[in-house]
Design brief:
By secondary structure, the protein is an alpha/beta fold. About 50% of the residues lie in helices and about 10% in strands. It contains 32 helices and 22 strands. Strands 2-1-12-8-11-6-3-4-5 form a nine-stranded mixed beta sheet, sandwiched between helices. Strands 14, 15, 16, 17, 18, 19, 20, 21 and 22 form a nine-stranded mixed beta sheet that branches. It has a four-stranded mixed beta sheet with strand order 7-13-9-10. Helix 23 (about 560-570) runs antiparallel to helix 31. The longest helix has about 90 residues, at about 35-120. It is elongated, with a radius of gyration of 39 Å.
Length: about 850
């Protein structure tokens, strides 16, 4: 075989050979005449001109390719910038609405509280001046609104005209108290009856309607009683809760609030947000300092590797958009006017702080009963009943409350999940939320939930941040909310408060609904309908240093990683891309395999070791040696194997002009021709070795998972040195950007090879194995990765070296496979990448290097860019 062809070097053309022959024949001959030499120089100049033109053409082609690639990148970047601009405009509009609501709340607060407080503190002689100042302000508001009908007022109330006062002043000083109407379209008594809080605040109904932009039902504008009443209710509830607020961190003032993808307006918050930018900055600094102290005190571990990788490699922007665009279900009923609540506490043996938990529940029940007049809260305690040393929750409540305390068996006992659902039904609860046995609920929790369930009647899930406390009750930190559209990457805070309506399904399709509120269930909910994140703190989460479960819960744990992976599987179903419509994976035992060994007959001692490792398998595996060479080389290999008493099938691949993929295609042709005799097949080079359980483990993997390609790990070995770990596995879709599966690390079903006539490239000397893997991926092969070392390869040739003998040809091969990867990514769609990312268990392998993480990010970008191309 021509060695220069194998190494990627073009053989010398006939013209050049002829030139050498002419030179050899012309030694010692008479030189040609001068004119003849001039005639010979003309073709040489023409040849040089043609070669220069070819070089310029190649340079222009390369420049054109780079320009097209840059254009694609710029198009993708432009689309991202336009999307960011649109999102910025939305945030600016939300900020504008929030600012408008804040102005109304500030004015009403100043008018209702500040005025009375200042008037009480003023000396008697200054109170008349203060009242006049206040009336002048109200008079100006009414006059500027244009809603007061002065002519009608004089005609309707003659005594007002006889008083000598201006109609607006008369209305403010005397008419409002006597129930007079400011115009024929506004009934103050009816407006005030719809908003009983106005009497408590001492606000004039007509002035309130002007400031809040609402009117009574007798008015000409549309009426929204709940909306127009919001400002007054906000202030009233904020005032009632002032004794509960602690020091410089008022309850919820510095916290964010969202409903789905939008920020809550000020009149949609239970408590007003009266914060300057400087206040917010100071609060943020206190929050970060408290978080650092919490980490130091309780030894919070870093998040699991899977969490960090999924945050970087998953299509986070697409997930955010999916969360942000959700709408409430049209068929979801509205929440009841006075909803019933169930608090679920699972006991795990923490007795010391359970009394504090019970005391907080009792306080909430008492405060709620005073406000509503009915018992509507049920405390369901799961576990601890059978423990003789545990104190019963019933013993901690008076007789009138104990009827609303339900104790169930331990969650680990049979039927506990059904018992919880049954208890919720018996309690008639519309909402339920969990409370850990060492945590404490705030007395205003149900008041806040009432407010938000009334303002968002079709909302079925509410989140709130906890107040982190130490074992002795010391406040360590007021945690912060994250926007619901960032729920995937932010996760749930330790002790996160989650309230859900009982008609909200929390289980996966086909599973029993045990009403378990976990992270994965919440992610599924956020993908289907908006989640409400409220700023108020509704409970206190106690950190216990001696509790190992607390330390685990304080970090993104393996359960969180599993939840993220489960959600990605669900999210992939919503993405465009090829679906696996080949039916159920094949199953059944695989008992016979064929090993295709590629050799040129130049390393017979290594070949003997390779064949021997195949014959040592515990599953019937036939070695098939494909000799890339002439008949003499094939005969030499046969004789050598016979001398070593190695029983192997030997097939010739005699065409020396074809390159490295050719002998493997000869082996594939043999497999397809004898498909009935072999269940699976795999490839080896003559410098590879497989361990004795290679065939058994991969055959079992193919059989049990029904996959088409089973992949194992391999060691690498420099001759006369101990083995070292080889390539680490990545999600299969990452093959579009680089190869991490050596040719000897995977086995394929014969049925898949028969159904898909895939072949190796025969015109390249490098990366033909990577090209074939991309072809498998493009054909829709099901891969399954086994994190187990089953083979090794010896580093001898330059295929595993960074510096290649023919670097230019190597780079050409690399470009070709990368272009093929782009086309494969376009055909498969982002769905395949997300599915592969979710299926990969990053905890089963060594920590990813920065380069590997960067490759995953690059792969995601490739799939996203190709998704954009498909849309075009």
């Amino acid at each position: 075989m021509d060695v220069s062809a194998v190494n990627g070097q073009a053989p010398k053309d006939a013209e050049s050979c002829g030139a050498h022959r002419d030179t050899a024949c012309g030694v010692g001959s008479v030189p040609p005449p001068e004119g003849a030499r001039g005639g010979e120089q003309a073709p040489a100049a023409e040849l040089e001109r043609v070669r220069a033109e070819q070089r310029r053409h190649a340079e222009r082609s390369e420049l054109r390719r780079r320009l097209v690639s840059s254009s694609d990148l710029l198009s993708a970047r432009l689309e991202q910038v336009l999307l960011e601009l649109h999102e910025t405009k939305q945030r600016m509009e939300e900020a504008r609405r929030t600012t408008a609501g804040l102005r109304r709340v500030l004015y009403l607060r100043r008018m209702s509280f500040q005025r009375r407080l200042v008037r009480r503190l003023l000396p008697e002689r200054l109170r008349l001046w203060w009242d006049e100042r206040h009336l002048s302000g109200l008079e100006r508001i009414i006059a500027e609104s244009g809603l007061f009908d002065a002519a009608w007022y004089r005609q309707a109330y003659p005594e007002a005209a006889a008083s000598g006062l201006e109609p607006i002043r008369d209305y403010l000083q005397f008419g409002a108290a006597k129930g007079r109407w400011p115009s024929p379209d506004f009934d103050p008594d009816r407006y005030a009856s719809e908003r009983p809080i106005l009497a408590f605040l001492g606000l004039d109904p007509f002035v309130h309607s002007i400031v809040s932009g609402a009117q009574s039902e007798t008015g000409q504008r549309a009426n929204d009683p709940l909306k127009s009443d919001a400002d007054a209710v906000l202030m009233a509830r904020a005032q009632a809760r002032e004794p509960l607020l602690e020091g410089s961190e008022p309850d919820g003032w510095f916290n964010g609030s969202w409903y789905g993808g939008r920020v809550l307006a000020e009149d949609e918050r239970f408590a007003p947000r009266l914060v300057t930018p400087d206040d917010q900055l100071a609060s943020d600094m206190r929050f970060h300092a408290a978080t650092s102290e919490l980490t130091r005190r309780y030894g919070i571990r870093p998040p699991a590797q899977t969490i960090e990788i999924l945050r970087k490699a998953a299509p986070v922007e697409l997930i955010r958009r999916a969360f942000a665009k959700t709408e409430p279900h049209r068929d979801a009923r509205c929440s009841q006017a006075v909803p019933r609540y169930a608090i679920v506490t699972v006991r795990a043996g923490e007795t010391e702080h359970f009394r504090s938990c019970a005391a907080s529940v009792k306080a909430l029940m008492g405060r709620d009963y005073e406000a509503v007049g009915v018992r509507r809260i049920t405390w369901i305690v799961v576990g601890g009943v059978a423990d003789l040393n545990s104190e019963s929750a019933l013993d901690l409540f008076p007789a009138d409350m104990s009827a609303f305390v339900v104790e169930l068996e331990s969650a680990s006992s049979h039927g506990a999940g059904g018992s919880l659902k049954e208890a919720l039904l018996k309690a008639g609860a519309e909402w339920h939320f969990s409370l850990e046995e060492a945590d404490e609920i705030e007395v205003h929790a149900t008041a806040a939930l009432d407010f938000y369930s009334a303002h968002f009647p079709r909302c079925r899930s509410i989140l709130a941040s906890p107040v982190d406390i130490a074992g002795d009750g010391e406040v360590l930190r007021r945690n912060r909310n994250a926007s619901p559209d960032r729920l995937f990457e932010s996760g749930l805070a330790p002790g996160q408060f989650v309230a859900v309506r009982c008609d909200l399904p929390l289980n996966r399709e086909g599973e029993a609904d045990d009403r378990a509120i976990d992270y994965e269930a919440l992610l599924r909910v956020a993908l289907d309908e908006p989640v409400l994140v409220i700023p108020e703190y509704l409970h206190r989460h106690r950190w216990l240093p001696a509790s190992a479960c607390k330390a685990a819960a304080a970090n993104p744990s393996l359960s969180t990683a599993r939840a993220m992976r489960g959600f990605l599987n669900l999210f992939a179903q919503q993405l465009a891309g090829q679906s696996d419509d080949r039916g159920a994976p094949l199953a059944g035992p695989l008992t016979a395999g064929l090993c295709i060994i590629r050799t040129q007959g130049s390393r017979l001692h290594l070949l003997a070791e390779t064949v021997a490792s195949v014959l040592d398998q515990t599953v019937s595996t036939r070695p098939c040696v494909v000799v890339h060479g002439g008949d003499d080389v094939e005969a030499q290999v046969r004789a050598w194997l016979a001398s070593q008493q190695l029983d192997a099938l030997v097939i010739g691949a005699p065409d020396r002009e074809r390159r490295r993929g050719y002998p493997l295609n000869v082996g594939l042709d043999y497999v397809r021709a004898n498909a009935g005799a072999y269940d699976f097949a795999f490839f080896l080079d003559d410098d590879d070795i497989i361990y004795p359980l290679y065939a058994e483990r991969l055959a079992a993997l193919l059989s049990r998972t029904g996959c088409d390609v089973g992949v194992a790990l391999a060691n690498s070995r420099v001759p006369w040195n101990p083995p070292q770990p080889g390539h680490q596995q990545l999600p299969v879709s990452a093959l579009v950007a680089g190869n991490f599966i050596p040719i000897h690390c995977y086995a394929m079903r014969t049925a898949f090879l028969t159904a898909n006539p895939l072949r190796f490239q025969e015109d390249i000397d490098y990366l033909e194995d990577w090209d074939f893997l991309v072809s498998l991926l493009d054909a829709g092969a099901r891969f399954f990765l086994l994190p187990e070392v089953l083979c090794e390869y010896r580093i001898i040739g330059d295929g595993n070296q960074k510096e290649k003998r023919n670097q230019e040809h190597f780079e050409q091969c690399e470009r070709m496979v990368l272009e093929k990867g782009l086309l494969t990514a376009r055909r498969l769609g982002l769905k395949r990448f997300v599915r592969d990312l979710a299926a990969f268990d990053f905890e089963e392998r060594a920590a990813l290097s920065p380069a590997e993480v960067e490759r995953l990010v690059e792969v995601r970008s490739i799939f996203e860019s190709q998704m954009t191309e498909n849309r075009r």
